[in-house]
Amino acid sequence: MDKFRSMANVDGLITDAADAKIPLMDRGFLYGDSIYEVFRTYKGIPLFHDEHWARFENSAQLAHLGLTISKDRMLDEIRRTVKATNAADLNRDVYVRYIITRGEGPIDLFPRPELTTRFVILVKELPEWKQEYSSVGIRLAIPEIRRNATNALDPNIKGGNYLNNILGMIEARALGADDCVMLNNSGLITEASTSNVFFIKQNENILITPAKAAGHLRGLTKAAVEKICLENNLELRAEDITVAALENTTECFLTSSTKEVMPVSSLRLPDGNVLSYPKGGGDMTRQLIQHYIAFVDAHIKTHEHLCLYK
What is the pLDDT of residues 136-163, one digit of tens each? Predict the structure, then answer.
């Protein structure tokens, strides 16, 4: 049996990921002038495929970037790329990132209207998170660097320029954490580097998550958790969360396409104090992990027609 191969697709040309090429003058490379989505598969079925595409279209609109590839064509190209990885033969689930760059042009910040967009698809193995992230929890820290202001760069443009998040992550690692949770310029909690964040209020069994106005990506796993809460009569509030309010939280977890629902074991505050959370997640976090597993299973059963192995 052939081994798994990470593969890329650049405007229809499929190669090993290590051999993929884009022109040096592509604006996605030069400026991060691109948009993207990431999903993972379960049994070969892309999770939240329609929702990802709707968010992709929203990113394109917010970035004034015209899409020149349809949803169906993109899915066909993803299928072709997945087939080349041998994932179907190996019964292996995959990580898929699809990207649209504004295309190739002169070194000039203004994007000329005659530019032709380029699509890029990357299919690789699912990230292997440290086992302790699920058994104990991921460690977070609040860095000094603040999240981009929403009136400077809308966080709902899921774009290729992640320097703000990278700097937050570098600072968090220097503080001994695994990931960062960033504040906005008003001192409110926004999100982690690539994940949404939730907390449980002390003695209330109420979930809280940052309000939209704080500035964060409207995550699809976050949206799934919101649905789960509605279906299971769990109280969830979106509200402004200050650093001081964190002292009254007893649990914390992150959500993303690849992290799913991941417990947090500790959170380092700006003053150096560290909040500790239950090992492997508290009662509410563990409950939500199980609800999420069931939610995904139900979603996959109703979307078998999208299987990428066919």
Answer: 999 999 999 999 999 999 999 999 999 9
**Residue 184 and residue 122 share a domain:** no
Whether 309 is covered by a domain: the verdict is no
CATH number at residue 286: 3.20.10.10
Distances (CA, A) of 241 to 106, 181, 186, 223, 272: 44, 12, 11, 19, 18
Based on the number of CB atoms within 10 Å of its own CB, is 239 exposed (0-12), middle (13-18) or buried (19 or more)?
middle
Note whether 58 and 32 are same-domain residues.
Answer: yes
Q: Give a yes or no: residue 25 inside a domain.
A: yes
Give pLDDT, residue 208.
Answer: 97
Please tell me the distance from the alpha carbon of residue 235 to that of residue 200, in angstroms, as a whole number: 10
d(CA 188, CA 210) in angstroms, rounded, equals 8
Q: pTM of the entire structure?
A: 0.95
Report the C-alpha gap between 284 and 79 in whole angstroms. Answer: 37
Question: Cα–Cα distance between 244 and 200 in angstroms, integer?
Answer: 14
Answer yes or no: are the C-beta atoms of 264 and 140 closer than 8 Å. Answer: yes
At 268-309, the pLDDT tens digits run 999 999 999 999 999 999 999 999 999 999 999 999 999 999
User: Could you count the other beta carbons within 10 Å of the beta carbon of residue 5?
Assistant: 15
Q: CATH number for the domain including 98? A: 3.30.470.10
3-class SS of residue 5: coil
117 and 142 share one domain: no
What residues form DSSP beta bridges with 183? Answer: 189
